[in-house]
Amino acid sequence: MKVQDIFIDSAMxxxxxxxxVSLADSVEDTKRRVESLAEGSIPVTINDRYGNELSATGxxxxxxQSFTNYGYSNDTLNWTLWLSLYNDSWVFRRAIDKPSQDVxxxxxxxxxxxxxxxxxxxFERHKSKLIELVMWGSLFGGSVxxxxxxxxxxxxxxxxxxxxxxxGKTMRLYVTDRWYGxxxxxxxxxxxxxxxxxxxxxxxxxxxxxxxxxxxHHSFVLxxxxxxxxxxxxxxxxxxxxxxxxxHILNELSRDDQLKSAITSLVNKSLIEVIKMKGMKGVFMxxxxxxxxxxxxxxxxxxxxxxxxxxxxLDTEDEYQQHNFSGVTGLADLMEKNMRLIAAALEMQGVxxxxxxxxxxxxxxxxxxxxxxxxxxxDTYFRPVLYKFLKIVFxxxxxxxxxxxxEFNSINQAQESxxxxxxINAYTRSLVDLVNNGIxxxxxxxxxxxxxxxxxxxxxxxxxxRLNLLKYEEEMNILKGYKSLGKxxxxxMNPMEGGSGFGxxxxxxxxxxPEAGFGEEDFGDDEINMSEPNLxxxxxxxxxxxxxxxxxx
Length: 553
Fold this sequence. Notes:
By secondary structure, this protein is mainly α. The protein is 44% helix and 9% strand. The protein is built from 18 helices and 10 strands. A 3-stranded antiparallel beta sheet has the order 3-2-7, with helices on one face. A 3-stranded antiparallel beta sheet has the order 4-5-6. Strands 1-10 form a two-stranded antiparallel sheet. Helix 3 packs across helix 4 (90-105), helix 4 packs across helix 14 (366-397) and helix 10 (250-268) packs antiparallel against helix 13.
């Protein structure tokens, strides 16, 4: 039934339907009459639009409109979508697998002087399961890994984990995502602020691979949460988990698939051949088996007569036309630019698609940027998981689990080590120049090198003894300069006492001789140019740290 029929039927049931509207009726009277007629009618929403399900245009899942309109929909909960994309799209699968593998494979370095070989060995043993934990957490927004120990029953796993239960025991990890076999008791959360699981459920209902379920205390569980959500969304829609990795790139992936489909369609239509044969209308109009066989034979005849030079043999009455599309050359650039947009959205420039436009050689800082992204992921999402894992391994190895301190390694460690080595060489040359000039000692140089290598800090310390020594050397140089200059002045003034140097001396009345005057023979190789006096040689400097012998002299 149409909307108009519903409205008329409702109006006919009312006694007021036959009351004519006069010119004396006010606007308010007319409004009230219309409202009374509409009472009891069925509310109907009329949508006037063009919908195309194949192109996702004008439909509820309109991808074109999603690029300009942003809603409150949360695709993180659509786990079937992520499974479909992970199965069918190699781009999406790589966007999940590659960063997850790098987060775990980059490794870590423990701070301390103890022997941590057993800890590193355990990490290598469980690395594949930890990668799986991060992968499913990235795909769905969260995952868990249950730590299983031999000799611990299902009943024991419902209680807090004790150190005595795991010493000398073999550990295995059972990994599952938040949608499969994980039930939470959200009414009770960890309230101890000293616990790394603070704010998470006290226990989980885990369904294992063999189908049996049991309650597992949070101390047995490694919980991974992916992209952090605002508290309103995290505690509401996401039920305490994080965003799925694909939630923020779904539109980009959809546009990439649509672009590829459009390009494929254009390539297929770039060369259209039209062959007009007499009597084809009758063949098409016919519905019997003979007409179908005749049509197939004609098409096979055309293809059979085609050679490798694209020549086609036709009847003299047949007509052949060819339509070319010249815009195919720019499609590759369009696709490549879109690939860069997806890589940028995933923070995987130069990594997501591998060798693109020369690979890393064309973008020298691509790996450096990606290494920073992985380092941030490690510190933000993976650090709590690894800390809890190491705490268990430390207890099993008999180490102090209260002194766990570690730093993540870089996936670009080889390049960074090379750059660090070059920087150390340049810094060493600068310190050697300071030592040769007597500004610092070799001991100070060693201290500065240690700070730079271990802490990446430029630190040159000057103690008071070294500063006093430098000050003393500077004063000695100045004093020696004054003494040398005073001696030169004294030597130049002595001949003046014997006469003017040319003729009789006013005091003695004797003729000045070369030995007593300013004759050239009196200077020789030691002649002093008064306009540019020769500076006295600087005293030899010592590289000794203390310099106590020089101070005593």
